[in-house]
């Protein structure tokens, strides 16, 4: 069974060192390792559940005092991985747009997974805390009723205090949609 794992660090340099240790310690695949606003570092990995758990433990052990947040999702929705890699197969014609904005990377990924698993939608993209003051935005597409359900499910998955806002736009303007994702 596949899993998705994330560590968020308070420092870029030691976060990168911890990420290197993680990738050397277990057979996992790197999705991203990058600095995010404001001056933090995230590493996002995928692989078998045991390998991801092991790599997360190695990363936490390498920089215990620097871990801000962590996440392990066993059996994530398939669309989640492609949304994180930016390779989601998206039909933009006559779609409704759902948005969930959060204060943390982990909460955005949790929201995206809950949204995708609870409705017939596509998680088109997860914008991860770059150029947005540390906030993240989950971008969901589909029929309006399914998008509403997905957004409701995603919002419920976000921990209290970490939700910025959410919205559903019925039949979103195509030029705006293409510009945004």
Automatic annotation (TrEMBL):
Subcellular location: Bacterial microcompartment
Alphabetized Gene3D superfamilies for the sequence: 3.30.70.1710
Membrane-crossing segments per the record: none
Main location: other
Annotated keywords: Bacterial microcompartment
Domain called BMC: residue spans: 3-85, 96-181
Record's signal peptide: none
Record's GO cellular component terms: bacterial microcompartment
Cited CDD domains: BMC_PduT_repeat1
Source species, domain of life: Bacteria
Protein family: Belongs to the bacterial microcompartments protein family.
PANTHER family recorded: BACTERIAL MICROCOMPARTMENT SHELL PROTEIN PDUJ, PROPANEDIOL UTILIZATION PROTEIN PDUA
The protein's name: Microcompartment protein CcmL/EutN
């Amino acid at each position: 069974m596949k899993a998705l794992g994330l560590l968020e660090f308070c420092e870029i340099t030691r976060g990168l060192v911890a990420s290197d240790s993680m990738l050397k310690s277990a057979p996992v695949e790197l999705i991203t390792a990058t600095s995010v606003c404001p001056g933090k570092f995230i590493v996002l990995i995928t692989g078998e559940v045991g390998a991801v758990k092991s790599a997360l433990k190695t990363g936490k052990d390498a920089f215990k005092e620097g871990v801000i947040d962590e996440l392990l999702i066993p059996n994530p929705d398939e669309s989640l991985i492609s949304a994180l890699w930016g390779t989601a197969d998206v039909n933009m014609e006559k779609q409704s747009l759902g948005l969930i904005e959060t204060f943390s990377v982990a909460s955005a990924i949790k929201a995206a997974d809950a949204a995708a698993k609870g409705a017939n939608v596509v998680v088109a993209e997860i914008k991860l805390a770059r150029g947005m003051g540390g906030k993240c935005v989950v971008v969901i597409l589909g029929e309006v009723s399914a998008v509403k359900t997905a957004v409701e499910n995603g919002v419920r998955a976000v921990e209290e205090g970490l939700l910025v806002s959410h919205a559903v736009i019925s039949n979103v303007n195509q030029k705006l949609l293409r510009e945004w994702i």
